[in-house]
Specification:
The complex is a heterodimer of chains A (about 170) and B (about 525).
Chain A lengths: L1 H14 L7 H11 L6 H12 L6 H9 L3 H10 L11 E6 L2 H4 L3 H12 L12 E6 L11 E3 L2 E3 L4 H10 L3
Parallel strand pairs in A: 1-2
Antiparallel strand pairs in A: 1-3, 3-4
Helix pairs in contact in A: 2-3, 2-4, 4-5
Chain B lengths: L4 E4 L4 H5 L2 H15 L3 E4 L13 E5 L2 E5 L7 H6 L11 E4 L4 H4 L17 H6 L4 H7 L3 H11 L11 H10 L6 E6 L8 H8 L1 H15 L3 E6 L4 H16 L15 E6 L9 H8 L23 E5 H13 L1 H5 L2 E2 L2 E2 L1 E8 L5 E6 L4 H8 L9 E6 L6 E3 L9 H6 L8 E6 L4 H15 L5 H18 L4 H18 L3 H5 L1 H10 L8
Parallel strand pairs in B: 1-2, 6-7, 6-9, 7-8, 12-16
Antiparallel strand pairs in B: 1-3, 3-4, 4-5, 10-11, 12-13, 14-15, 14-16
Classes of the chains: A alpha+beta (about 170), B alpha/beta (about 525).
């Protein structure tokens, strides 16, 4: 898919300076968890939270900190949806794609937000303003369909409600 | 003399997702502008998701509930004298008299909604730590025997007898044992673990301590999914409070026994809800499923004997210890003893949590509690037990909610999640989704799941497009047989269940002409 590749390159350029690599900070995050049993997951969460992604520069530091190979570190990082290789947009929207939300129109809601933003699930808009993600169950299934908008959970989300949220952070 | 009125507004994800915080601000502003003195307690949720945000007012008659309250309703509520329980279009009467709640069998969720989740005082004033006190006076074997006699089975879905699992860990000799709570509630249509952790976290902590006493473990982990950030905050604070009061850590309440708990976060992987994948993830590795044997009870976390239990299995233990095995055992039917927290989800009028003894029918839950479809269109399909559970039709609604009855019907009771679909659902699309979800979430260790899920989704695409329909349907059935027999865990092994049940009940949806 050459067009997707093109988007991705533009995205990385747009965000390459969002939170610049900071080795001292990364080492400090890793040191907090290095002696914790099974602490690699926590260290990855810490890095993802601080940088907004897992910078490739951190693999060698994680490997040294946890006495693993870089390949093992990459293996763990790449297994989990939460750990991303590239920064996300300024605003992150997750739309639940699981069954309970499907039964209340999440497929139509997904199409709606994709049309509004001009991107599909898993993409970031070329201007870096929005990232749209799929999520599989937010545990709010009594009041579906559900989304998170910049980390905040919203239930019973209609297309109008979505537009209202988008408008609040429009450029 | 000031006339302080106490209100309750849940600090719980569903209520917050529908504007509970904004509502609290609106109520406080309105009260201030009218010179009323109010305090707002942030309780857990009663589980009536359809009424959230639910505001309760403490009156002489009891707590009066107002449902679906939005900030713009604040002025009207004050006008209607709601601080004295006054009548209003949103008034639901006394909370405890709401039929949805009144007719439940609240054992595990007895305190959810009633109390301020983080108040140890409230917890103890409502029966908290009674079970632990009992357990502290017993031998390990006596605790295990109580749990075995209660008939409690794993509430995470697999329904393995909890007491037997504990006994295996108790009998295993090791310098170190662990209690791992599986709080990776990833099945669509389930939210009971979350409601409990947000609304009554000490009951989980108490259950884990008792499990530790029962098997000789002094360390516990809660593996919590990252989609539940509020649970992390509430549980984290609860652990700190419990430690301060001597309920956790060294020498619990002067008993000479030690136990402490750490929270570890998942990272968006569904398969990590499978117990061995969860253990790998807790060890800081890829969440790859382990072959069994060895069972986690023998070689679990870091290779040590480990109890792996779901949130609700553990949180049900305190009441079993407090009231006795027989009390708990007296609820339920057949080999399904006690209560289970059903979760009404999807296209349903009154979605929420219903804790009932086993044996209630699916119809009673969906029609009497749930009030039928929200869209008012005829019901078409009900998926019970999460994404790996069967799709049931209208004809199956009289099935009793019982592990064995569901197995016999080729279905899965699982964690008790019930997702309702109206007649607009395309079951071929749902079958395709089951494969797609498996492809996205497969850990990749075994071929039937890793490759089979991708092939299954492709086949469904062809079937939907009308391409060699009969041949491809047969191929898909073969593939399902292979996945069922050859997969390492339930992810690949049970994905055929929703697929084949959809095909069995609604073959017309798989035709394209």
């Amino acid at each position: 898919m050459p067009d997707k590749m093109g988007d991705k390159t533009r995205l990385e350029e747009a965000h390459s300076h969002k939170v610049s690599w900071n080795q001292a900070e990364a080492l400090q995050i890793i040191a907090q968890y290095a002696s914790l049993k099974g602490g690699l997951m926590e260290a990855l969460h810490g890095l993802q939270y601080f940088f907004g992604y897992i910078p490739a520069e951190s693999y060698a530091l994680l490997a040294a900190g946890f006495n693993l190979s870089e390949a093992e570190v990459y293996g763990v990082k790449s297994f989990y949806h939460d750990f991303t290789a590239a920064p996300k947009g300024r605003h992150v929207i997750q739309v639940c794609q699981a069954e309970a939300c499907q039964s209340r129109g999440s497929r139509a809601l997904t199409r709606h937000v994709q049309n509004q933003l001009g991107i599909t699930l898993g993409q970031t808009s070329p201007d870096g303003h929005f990232t749209l993600e799929a999520v599989y169950c937010l545990g709010n299934c009594a009041v579906s369909p559900n989304i998170t908008f910049d980390g905040r959970l919203h239930g019973r989300v209609s297309a109008d409600h979505m537009d209202h949220l988008l408008k609040k952070v429009a450029l | 003399m000031t006339n302080l009125v106490t209100l309750y507004v849940p600090l719980e994800s569903t209520a917050l997702s529908l504007g509970a915080d904004e509502l609290v601000l609106a109520l406080m502003e309105e009260a201030a502008s009218r010179g009323h003195d109010i305090e707002i307690i942030r309780n857990g949720s009663w589980g009536m998701g359809w009424l959230e945000p639910l505001v309760e007012v403490a009156t002489k008659r009891g707590r009066v509930a107002y449902g679906n309250v939005s900030p713009s309703d604040a002025a009207g509520l004050f006008d209607a004298g709601f601080l004295a329980g006054g009548d209003h279009a949103l008034c639901q009467g006394l909370t405890t008299e709401i039929p949805y709640l009144k007719n439940q069998d609240r054992l595990t969720f007895a305190r959810c909604g009633l109390i301020d989740a983080l108040s140890l005082h409230d917890y103890q004033a409502n029966g908290g730590f009674v079970g632990l006190d009992v357990a502290l006076k017993m031998t390990a074997q006596q605790i295990v025997d109580q749990v075995t006699q209660s008939g409690l089975r794993g509430r995470g879905g697999a329904a393995f007898p909890t007491g037997i699992k504990w006994n295996t860990v108790l009998k295993a000799s090791s310098d170190q044992k662990y209690i791992c709570c599986n709080a990776d509630e990833g099945d669509s249509g389930t939210f009971a673990d979350r409601i409990l952790m947000e609304g009554d976290p000490y009951s989980l902590i108490e259950g884990m301590i008792i499990a530790g006493l029962a098997v000789g473990a002094n360390e516990g982990y809660i593996y919590l999914r990252s989609e539940y950030p509020l649970c992390k905050e509430i549980l984290g604070e609860a652990l700190i409070n419990a430690r301060h009061q001597g309920w956790l850590g060294k020498d619990i309440r002067g008993s000479g026994r030690d136990f402490d708990i750490e929270i570890r976060m998942g990272a968006g992987s569904y398969v990590c809800g499978e117990e061995t994948a969860m253990l790998e993830s807790l060890e800081g590795k890829r969440g790859m499923v382990r072959a069994k044997p060895p069972l986690p009870a023998i070689e679990g976390l870091f290779g040590k004997p480990t109890v792996v239990n779901n949130v609700l299995s553990l949180a049900s233990v305190p009441i079993i210890m407090a009231r006795g095995a027989e009390y708990y055992q007296n609820f339920g039917m057949g080999r399904s003893r006690g209560t289970i927290a059903f979760q009404l989800a999807g296209n349903i009028t009154r979605g929420g949590l219903v804790e009932k003894a086993f044996g209630v029918s699916l119809r009673e839950l969906i029609e009497n509690y749930g009030g039928g479809t929200l869209s008012d269109l005829p019901l078409k399909a009900v998926q019970v037990g999460g994404p790996l559970g069967a799709y049931l039709s209208e004809d199956d609604l009289d099935l009793p909610m019982d592990y064995e009855a569901f197995s016999e019907a080729g279905a899965v009771l699982g964690h008790g999640g019930i997702v309702v679909f109206d007649h607009t659902v395309d079951m071929a699309e749902q079958a395709k989704f089951a494969f797609e979800f498996c492809a996205i979430e497969s850990c990749g260790k075994c071929t039937p799941c890793r490759i089979g899920s991708v092939r299954g989704a492709e086949l469904m695409g062809k079937i939907q497009a009308g391409e060699k329909r009969a041949e491809n349907l047969n191929l898909m059935k073969d593939l399902c047989e292979l996945m069922e027999a050859g997969s390492l865990c339930a992810m690949g092994g049970m994905t055929p269940i929703p697929v084949l049940s959809a095909l069995r009940h609604w073959p017309e949806d798989f035709k394209t002409e």
